[in-house]
Amino acid sequence: MRLTITALVLLLIAGVVVVLNQQEYVPGDTAAVDDGPDSFVEDMTLSVMNGDGRAVYRLTAVSMIHHAGTDLLELRNPLVDITRPDGSQWQITAARGEAATSGERVWLPGAVDLRRAADSRHGAMHISASDVLIRPGEKVAETERKAIITTDSFRVEAVGLKADFLNNRLELQSNVRGRIHGAG
Fold it and tell me: Which pTM value belongs to this model?
């Protein structure tokens, strides 16, 4: 009986050691993938159109790497172009990023620039943020970090931002403060 209990305890300990030593994929950590990339593309472009043939968004990158066993694409210098229904565009850029292979989510860690060029309906806008999650099909970008929104007429800072490009709305979460240029 004592030998059986000792054997069971040793098997339990061995099982715990095996489980604890298994590598789990963490976004941005390619060390968890033993076999290296299974595909590599330079000057990648992914264009997504709606049923009417209009551009919904386009994702480009200087390079893309896919690792076997993951659902993520590693991107270098990604650019996400989101086209609004009125034809205006937002360009979102970063030094690196990750995208789900389905294209439904794009994660841009670190510094991120979101820009809308001026057109006949809207003035230019620049948002400087970090650690931005984009759901391009929904035309939404969000961060829980500090964001700075700048136009010709105002500058606003906030912690936490949700940009709903479809409805042309910015939701600021907390610690909002700003300055209107030319006021006073």
Answer: 0.76
